[in-house]
Amino acid sequence: MAFALPFSALLSILSHSSAHWCYQSQYSYNNTCRDPSQWSVIFPACGGLHQSPINIVTHHVQINNSLSPLTFNGHHNNLNITVENMGNFVQFLLPWSVQVSGGGLPGWYRGVQFHLHWGVDARPGSEHTVDGEQYPMEMHVVHIKEPYNSLEEAVHDAAGIAVLAFLFERSTNDHPHLNSLIEALGRAQNKGNQSTVPGFKLCNIIPASHNLHNYYRYVGSMTTPGCEQAVVWTLFHKTIPISNRQLRSVAQQARFWTGQPMVGIFRPAQHLNSRTVYRSATSLVQPDISIWLLCLVSILKGLCVLH
Ligand SMILES: *[C@@H]1O[C@H](CO)[C@@H](O)[C@H](O)[C@H]1NC(C)=O
Ligand SMILES: *[C@@H]1O[C@H](CO)[C@@H](O)[C@H](O)[C@H]1NC(C)=O
Ligand SMILES: *[C@@H]1O[C@H](CO)[C@@H](O)[C@H](O)[C@H]1NC(C)=O
Ligand SMILES: *[C@@H]1O[C@H](CO)[C@@H](O)[C@H](O)[C@H]1NC(C)=O
Ligand SMILES: [Zn+2]
């Protein structure tokens, strides 16, 4: 009996604080939550040596010939997907018919959800940076390895999760298919709100697969607590266009669990430590060969004309 009160008090403190990790933007507003530099106090894995996101230093990246193009299933399917405000971010649930394999991945992975990371107003908000440059927004499509049934099962395997990451780049015109996602964010305004996005196709957002042969690959973690180090990361070179108007609109739709505007939802870059970042080689070789052939043809033509 003597221990009952302190123990339950401790439990309530633990469960109270663990629900309250937050991004820097939220911490600046109300510093009662744990900002990214303090996540590891409540989630020890966040202080690990294989954390994400990272800054990719392109002249340190190693070309790896086993990184062939990926194979996608279900990207052209018409889906009715659920959008849900989780309090710290908003996720769009995917069915298992969305699948990915190849590209050096050890088997088939099935879709679980995708979500976006954005900034404050229309300022940069990507998680991964390339040579120190932060992009306007980043999309993560989260998959779990077959035959796992949930993220909870998959996190016990160092390659249990495959995240496909896409950086956004500013464009003058609106991206025609992003508006339905932005409206869906608005229907998931508060924590716990759910809504349906009918007739959604991943291929309307994600570039065609022949544009996805070039990518970076490294092993890392989830970028939200618990920061489980179970993720094979694929970051594509090809970006997705988004207009300034759309970017501003994305950041105006949803709210954190505290009711404040959901803005600045990105974790800063983590140390690479002993890891190597690889790059696919596939389609970089082809243009080189065709350029050589063109040169050869024009040289031969030149020789013919000369004689
Ligand atoms: C700050 O956050 C705490 C815990 O979520 C909450 O109880 C408090 O009311 C907030 N303060 C302000 C000024 O929003
Ligand atoms: C290529 O990448 C794989 C991981 O996908 C790694 O196991 C292998 O060692 C890399 N090969 C080279 C030559 O770096
Ligand atoms: C999506 O929802 C529409 C109507 O709300 C329904 O007619 C259609 O069959 C659904 N599609 C799928 C793949 O569930
Ligand atoms: C969204 O969540 C808020 C707060 O929980 C609730 O009051 C509101 O009714 C919900 N709206 C919808 C459309 O579910
Ligand atoms: Zn993410």
Topology, pairings included?
Layout: H1 4-18, H2 24-29, H3 39-42, E1 55-56, E2 62-64, E3 70-73, E4 79-85, E5 90-93, E6 99-102, E7 109-118, E8 129-130, E9 133-134, E10 137-145, H4 151-154, E11 161-171, H5 179-187, E12 194-200, E13 215-220, E14 231-236, E15 240-243, H6 244-250, E16 278-280, H7 282-306
Parallel strand pairs: 1-8, 2-16, 11-14, 11-15
Antiparallel strand pairs: 3-6, 4-5, 4-12, 5-7, 6-7, 7-10, 8-9, 10-11, 13-14, 13-16
How would you sum up this structure, described in words?
The structure is a single chain. The chain is of the alpha+beta class and 307 residues long. The protein has a single domain (6-300), classed as Carbonic Anhydrase II (Roll). The chain has seven helices and 16 strands. The protein has helices at 4-18, 24-29, 39-42, 151-154, 179-187, 244-250, 282-306, and strands at residues 55-56, 62-64, 70-73, 79-85, 90-93, 99-102, 109-118, 129-130, 133-134, 137-145, 161-171, 194-200, 215-220, 231-236, 240-243, 278-280. The strands form two sheets. Strands 2, 3, 4, 5, 6, 7, 10, 11, 12, 13, 14, 15 and 16 form a 13-stranded mixed sheet that branches. Strands 1-8-9 form a three-stranded mixed sheet, with no helix packed on it. It is globular, with a radius of gyration of 22 Å. 37% of the residues are buried. Residues 1-18, 284-288 and 302-307 have low confidence and may be disordered. The protein binds 2-acetamido-2-deoxy-beta-D-glucopyranose (4 copies) and zinc ion. The site of one 2-acetamido-2-deoxy-beta-D-glucopyranose (NAG) has 3 residues, from loops. Its cofactor is Zn(2+). Its EC number is 4.2.1.1. Belongs to the alpha-carbonic anhydrase family. This is Carbonic anhydrase. Residues 1-19 form the signal peptide.
